[in-house]
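Hi F.,

I've been meaning to write this up properly since the lab meeting, where we talked about keeping a consistent format for the predictions we share between groups. The idea is simple: the sequence comes first, exactly as it goes in, then the structure tokens exactly as they come out, then a line or two of notes. No screenshots and no reformatting. I'm using this chain as the first example so we have something concrete to point to.
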Amino acid sequence: MIKKNAIRNTMKDKRNRLSEPLIMTCSLEITKIAYDYIVVNSFKNAAIYMSIKNEVRIEYMVALNKGRAINIFLPVCKNYNDIYFNKIDDINCMQKDYFGISCPKNDCATAVKEIEVFFIPGLAFDMSGNRVGYGKGCYDGILTKAEESLFIGVCYEFQLIFNDVLEQNSHDIKMDYILTEKGMYKVNNLPRFR
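Output, unedited:
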């Protein structure tokens, strides 16, 4: 079992050393796979995130979605425990949230349970669907309100742990799939909620 703090520091260091061209290339490929998945499955409401600290730039999806009928939502954090999702139409019309992350200026929030698929960032994922994030527990808290939704972890291939299991706590939520630049992995994740 890999301890959270150990893998968190290792993956932060590796991700911080990624080159800009590699980030862009991988992000574009991952975003294309993600968007195609939304379209093929006829999802109408999808949640993404605004990348920070060399995360996969899944926000490229907003440009792909221009003029289409899919509703794309971004998280807005008022504090650690108050997170909601606002619709994003224009990546240039943003403000900073509690954590200093860009979020939509509008007040077009939706109920979390209305979102069919969530694309969730992480520092590491394993093939059981376990996720290690920054350690604040923000996503774990909000995802418990979306039991019927699909959870897709988003990362670079090097952040995916194939031959070991990540340490987990009782409040941690498991992913259904993991998405990297090499494709989408179905994970063995039952039970998702503990």
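Notes:
The chain has one domain: 4-186.
The first strand starts at residue 45 and ends at 47.

If this format works for you, I'll send the rest the same way.

G.
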